[in-house]
Amino acid sequence: MTVRFRPLDPVQDAELLHGWVTHPKAAFWMMQDASREDVVREYSAFAANPHHEAFIGLVDGVPAILMERYDPAHLELVGLYEPQPGDVGMHFLVAPTDTPVHGFTRRVITAVMAELFADPATARVVVEPDVANKAVHALNAAVGFVPEREIQKPEKKALLSFCTRAQFEAAVGAAA
């Protein structure tokens, strides 16, 4: 499986994204009722924000991943924890499919983390998934995330978790 990431284009990728973020399996993205225009507006705002980047992940050339990278000192977690230099916030979503492949999502999160740590400035990845999202907690643990505590965000109760480069490498092997 070859994974590469390209910058997301809010207009060109709107139809693709709309199908992903409104799918029942994307309930934790809280965009179930979003229109195509809502998706364009949301991702255009992200694109205009210097502290947020969004990417489409191509698996063997096919769009299959939405990855968001953000600066938690400026977005999402402001006032909820003490950011450290090199902290990078991350969200990821795997495209819905009618033919799931066992282990695919774990390979995806491993590729996402490898992409984030490919930047030498990234010291630690920060995530804040919904406390009820047990599936993503297991995936996060598999790549080295350690939960710190529950936090209350405006839209959800979240599990604040961190993963250093060393924790990631120990979890998935130095080859990642």
From TrEMBL:
Task: Quote one Gene Ontology molecular function term.
Answer: acyltransferase activity
A Pfam family found in this protein is: Acetyltransf_8
Superkingdom, natural source: Bacteria
Instruction: Could you list this entry's UniProt keywords, alphabetically sorted.
Output: Acyltransferase, Transferase
> In its keyword annotation, does this UniProt entry include DNA repair?
no
Q: Where is the Acyltransferase MbtK/IucB-like conserved domain?
A: 6-53
| Transmembrane annotation, as ranges | none
Biological pathway: Siderophore biosynthesis; mycobactin biosynthesis
- General function of this protein: Acyltransferase required for the direct transfer of medium- to long-chain fatty acyl moieties from a carrier protein (MbtL) on to the epsilon-amino group of lysine residue in the mycobactin core.
Please identify the protein, giving its name as recorded: Lysine N-acyltransferase MbtK
Q: Which organism is it from?
A: Streptomyces bikiniensis
